Amino acid sequence: MLALLGAAALVLVAGEPWVLLAAAGGEDLEPPEDIDVYIIDDNCTLKWSSREAVGNVTFSAEYQTEEMENWLKLPGCQHITGTECKFSLLDTNVYIKISFRVRAEKGKSTSPWNEGDPFIPFQKAHIGPPGVRLEAEDKAILVYITHPGQGGNMWARDNFSFRYKIVIWQKSSGVTQIIETTYYTERILKLLPETTYCLKVEAIHFFLRKHSSYSAVQCINTTVADKMPVPENIEVDADGESYVLSWDYASPNVSFRAQWFPSYFKSISGSYLDKWETIPTCADVRTTRCVFPRDAVHTGTFFLRVQASHGDNTSFWSEEKLINSQKYTAIPPPVIAVTPSRDSLLVYVSCQDSPSTTCHGLTYEVSVWENTSNTKMKMVKESPEFTIGNLQPLTLYCVQARVHSFAVWNKSSSFSETLCKETRPGNSSQIWIMIALSIVIFSVLVLVLYAGRSLLKYLSCVYFSSPKPPPSIEEFFSEPSSKNLLFLMPEEHTERCFIIENTDSVTEESQASEEDHRKYSSQTSQDSGNYSNEEGSTGSDSGAGLRPSD
Hints:
The chain is built from seven helices and 33 strands. It is of the alpha+beta class. The chain has four domains: 28-124, Immunoglobulins (Immunoglobulin-like, Sandwich), CATH 2.60.40; 131-327, Immunoglobulins (Immunoglobulin-like, Sandwich), CATH 2.60.40; 335-427, Sandwich (Immunoglobulin-like); 460-527, no CATH class. The model is unreliable at 1-26, 462-466, 476-513 and 517-550 (pLDDT under 50).
């Protein structure tokens, strides 16, 4: 027993240093648990729990992305005395998986690493409140919005992925008004001058369907009412290759100017005041309308605004009118292709500019009528391909088509050119021909079968009538076996067969056979009826078996 204890003591002395440390009073540490990360924009908080007494141990964290082979120390999360630490993902790819691990430390002792579940930061992150800045006019408030996490990495590619909900209310009443927009600048009109208004803004991500928290409530006072009113009721119409801009204004002796601005600038966070451009033909007009060429505006979607001035006094700018040039562009008539068949027409409608492609987002209308009739059949659907059935063969039909833009602009094109096509011949003539041929063939078969049956009946009557021997022979061959050994020539026929045919050849043959039959009957009627059976006759010759005696 003593020998065994001595051996154990020797092993302890020669063991690893951590064993010596444990023997000297070192302790095993429990690893942290419940590791999780909370992310809002680019700001992250790593949290965990521990069975160790907080304050007696510290904690350190490391991270690793799926692109890395080794674990790296997480900045801001080394030798932490609490159970959470904050860090940033500014230098990290937020679209790939990342993992975190944490361990406990006490002196020179450390616990094993405990690793949390990997995740993609972009999917896990919460959206922070957007930035908001306000400017006041006498009857309007300008709201400048910056997207959440401005300047960060998390939403840097999502400028166009947010929409915003603005909640505004008059401070004295508390009645709220909600305005939703996809722009980063919004002008709230029709407010009261010298009135305090408060608002807050929420950001909503289109694709992730996540809502941010609201921005901090901000309040602002509108200014004193301006001496010059703002131009109102901005309208735009098209006249050939020009736009006609008009507005309402009550005061006389006032000049106006108009500006335009590309709409996409409003979808970019930041101020756009320096992006407005003056329209040359609307820079100083004395009437409440101006005309400018379409090519003066270099984009398909833009804003227009108008300002009034009198001497040194100027009004605030009017509302910003959004213009889509497609609304004022006439839809050209489509091109149609018609393929006829026996009882239908296949009609395909395509754009005039590119016949091989369809006109997207449009509704198609096709009118079809028989060339000799004024009654038209109309079909409307969202597909450019039509099959018009139940038509008559070998008939000329005419087709027209047009397109509609009901969903957006509620306008239609003019009709296409009329295209007439004749349907192909039907198969009714072929059916009648086949029926006629079938009748002829059937008639021929009936005649052939009838002629063959008559001829067969005649032959059976002439050549295969059963012979009837005289009564003396019947008595002589009383045994049934003897009757079967002989073929007897008939003494006389007990019945006659007559075959009547329409053809001359069969009639002649019938007459010849009748004469032969009569001749044969007259010869046999002279027979004496006495027969003898010679011993030298053989049974093999059936024709010589019986012979009349002289």
